[in-house]
Amino acid sequence: MSFPKPFYRWRPHPWHGLDVGQEAPRVVNAYIELTPFDRVKYEVDKTTGYLRVDRPQRTSAQPPSLYGFVPRTFCGRRTGELSPAERGDGDPLDICVISEQPIQRAEVILDARVVGGLQMIDGGEADDKIIAVLSNDYIWQGTRDVGELPEVLVERLRHYFATYKLVTGEESKISIETVYDREHAWKVIEASMADYTDEFGD
After folding, report:
1. If we measure between CA atoms, which residue out of 187, 136, 199 comes closest to residue 25?
2. How far is CA 117 from CA 65, 127, 158, in A?
3. How far apart (Å, rounded) are the C-alpha atoms in residues 122 and 134?
4. What pLDDT does 2 receive?
5. pLDDT at 108
6. Distance between CA atoms of 77 and 124, rounded to whole angstroms?
7. Cα angle 138-26-118, degrees, rounded to a multiple of 5
8. How far apart are CA 107 and CA 35, in angstroms?
9. Could you tell me the pTM of the whole model?
10. From CA 133, how far away is CA 118, in angstroms rounded?
11. Distance separating alpha carbons of residues 104 and 106, to the nearest angstrom
12. Is 194 exposed, middle or buried, given 0-12, 13-18 or 19+ CB atoms closer than 10 A?
């Protein structure tokens, strides 16, 4: 029996085994961990590549978009230098993907057209959230920059990430410094790709 090329005899690790995308940084692969229907925070286990339950959502807010990360990225020194943070958070680069039709399944891969991002600082570390649209979405496929999105949608993203780790009685360690455009988002993606090569090699 002959297998098609490329062919993975075993499931590739979502972070290290999938490709960043042939058109990166403009269009990237996004591996989805959370949907807007999830009341529990899931996160890819760094060792196995399977989804692990991280924690129940602390607030009543639900993710306003699909949420995951860009494979073969790493938020290290270069990524941190593009923000007021002391350093990157050592995780793959997070991405929020807007879709007109509800996508209710996690652990899917999709093509995401990058339109901007949130410059977020969490505990002194850069934890940027790239904002993208599903590249072949009938409603959003023409969107090229975050300024073309409805303000209320961007505000929902800001509010969710500003509050999703809140603990009653404790001071928040999160700040959203700014919302940036696609050109800066491309720089963040390129920096995180270079950080990945530094950390893990080609």
Report:
1. 187
2. 13, 11, 10
3. 27
4. 65
5. 97
6. 13
7. 90
8. 10
9. 0.94
10. 14
11. 7
12. middle
Each residue's pLDDT, cut to its tens digit, for the chain (202 residues) gives 566 777 777 889 999 999 999 999 999 999 999 999 988 889 999 999 999 998 887 777 788 999 999 999 999 999 999 999 979 999 999 999 999 999 999 999 999 999 999 999 999 999 999 999 999 999 999 999 999 999 999 999 999 999 887 777 778 888 999 999 999 999 999 999 999 999 999 8
Question: What is the CATH code of the structural domain delimited by 27-200?
Answer: 3.90.80.10
Longest dimension (CA), the chain: 62
Written as one string, the DSSP assignment of 34-97 is E-TT-SEEEEE-TTT-SEEEEEE-SSS---SSEEEE-TT---SHHHHHTSSSSEE-SSPPEEEE
At 94, the amino acid letter reads D
Query: What DSSP assignment string belongs to 124-179?
Result: TEE--EEEEEETT-TTTTT--SGGGS-HHHHHHHHHHHHHTT--TTS---EEEEEE
Structural contact between residues 56 and 101, judged by C-beta atoms closer than 8 angstroms: no
Q: What is the length of the chain?
A: 202
The domain limits of the chain are: 27-200
Residue pointed to by tokens 């800001």? 158
